[in-house]
UniProtKB/TrEMBL annotation:
It comes from Niabella yanshanensis. CDD domains: GH43_CoXyl43_like. It holds the Pfam family Glyco_hydro_43. Belongs to the glycosyl hydrolase 43 family. SUPFAM superfamilies: Arabinanase/levansucrase/invertase. This is Glycoside hydrolase family 43 protein. GO terms for molecular function: hydrolase activity. The keyword NADP does not apply. InterPro entries: Glyco_hydro_43, Glyco_hydro_beta-prop_sf, Glycosyl_Hydrlase_43_Enz. Keywords: Carbohydrate metabolism, Glycosidase, Hydrolase, Polysaccharide degradation, Xylan degradation.
Length: 345
């Protein structure tokens, strides 16, 4: 993830006030996946650390080793750190880079889904199980069969089916899976293996999970995002095309797929009629934050909607030292989400 982007907000140049404060400040946290379980909010973030790895365009400096679950009695309550929920050393198949996780509940058990790089330097997605939402989670010894890339987000539909959305380009390696198997051809550059600017954009992936939530029940499909005319967004449409950070929520019977545009730093969304899409591009949820990455989740609590997101304000702009935040968001009378500006004058 390069530092030369033209649109991300530098902390030193920020002369506006953040609309939200970090939920916790004793550790750095990012990529918050929030859920309401048993009336309480549980947030499954990345745990950012300064491991000393060199900055590069593949995000090697995002060298996270473990996960902590953060809980809150309600959106204005103090956030509680419940300690280490899973460490990379306890995952037989994973070597490093415990990136953005998510969790789900089924029949009183809790499932933590997480990406990590294996010893072969390929990102896969694993699952770990606990009897409580805060863990500790016991990992399965192998990654999910046929999983790849990063940023799993698992949505439970009203009919009891669970769907995993995942994928991320550049350091997330999605572009290397275009032919169905991992393309390890040189160069190891985030810009290699991508479609041309005038070709359809790479899509996030979605797969329904098996009843035990431990495997894909079907081959992963493309999450197609189209414009108002029904045409797929193009790879060169950097302000709107998918980059990473999938999320799905349902509002008034419609499926809202939201995601980060990566190098243009927006959280955008698209609306569809079923979990597989296609989804029609609908606008921006969050304007750029301090720091390069933007990653979010959306949760309903007592009929109000909340955006969980992160920025690098607390670390004064260090890209890989981020802090999770929450702000209320609104759907308008037509179902469109009002764009949140994370800073105000
Ligand atoms: O936290 C590491 C990576 O940065 C995540 O997987 C991406 O979504 C981005 O936030």
């Amino acid at each position: 993830m390069p530092e030369e982007s033209i649109q991300h907000i530098n902390f030193d140049e920020l002369n506006r006030k953040a609309v939200s404060s970090p939920l916790v400040s004793h550790i750095y946290t990012a990529d918050p996946s929030a859920h309401v379980f048993n009336g309480k909010i549980y947030i499954y973030p990345s745990h950012d650390v300064n491991a000393g790895d060199a900055f590069d365009d593949l995000g090697s400096h995002f060298a996270m080793e473990d996960y902590h679950v953060i809980s809150m009695d309600h959106p204005d309550a103090d956030a509680v750190d419940n300690g280490v929920a899973l460490h990379v050393n306890d995952v037989p198949w994973a070597e490093k880079q415990m990136w953005a996780p998510d969790a789900q509940e089924k029949d009183g058990r809790y499932y933590l889904f997480f990406p990590a790089k294996g010893y072969d330097r390929i990102f896969k997605i694993g699952v770990a199980i606990s009897d409580t939402p805060t863990g500790p989670f016991i990992p399965k010894p192998q990654a999910i069969k046929d999983s790849f890339s990063i940023d799993p987000a698992v949505y439970k539909d009203d009919d009891g089916n669970y769907y995993m959305y995942f994928g991320g380009i550049w350091g997330g390696q999605l572009q290397r899976w275009r032919t169905g198997s991992f393309n390890d051809a040189e160069p190891e550059s985030p810009f290699a293996h991508l479609p041309a600017h005038n070709e359809p954009a790479l899509c996030a992936k979605v797969a329904r999970l098996t009843d035990d939530l431990l495997e894909f029940a079907e081959p992963a499909k493309d999450v197609l995002i189209v414009d108002e005319a029904g045409n797929p967004l193009l790879q060169g449409d950097n302000d709107r095309r998918f980059f990473e950070a999938s999320w799905l929520h349902k509002y008034q019977g419609k499926y809202y797929f939201s995601y980060s545009t990566g190098d243009t730093h927006y959280i955008c969304y698209a609306i569809g009629d079923n979990p597989y899409g296609p989804f029609t591009y609908a606008g921006r949820i969050l304007n750029p934050v301090v720091g390069w990455t933007s990653h979010h989740s959306i949760a309903e609590y007592k009929s109000e909607w909340y955006l969980f997101y992160h920025d690098s304000s607390l670390s004064k702009g260090v890209t890989h030292l981020r802090s999770i935040k929450v702000a209320k968001i609104e759907h308008d009378e037509n179902g469109y989400i009002k764009t949140l500006d994370p800073y105000q004058d």
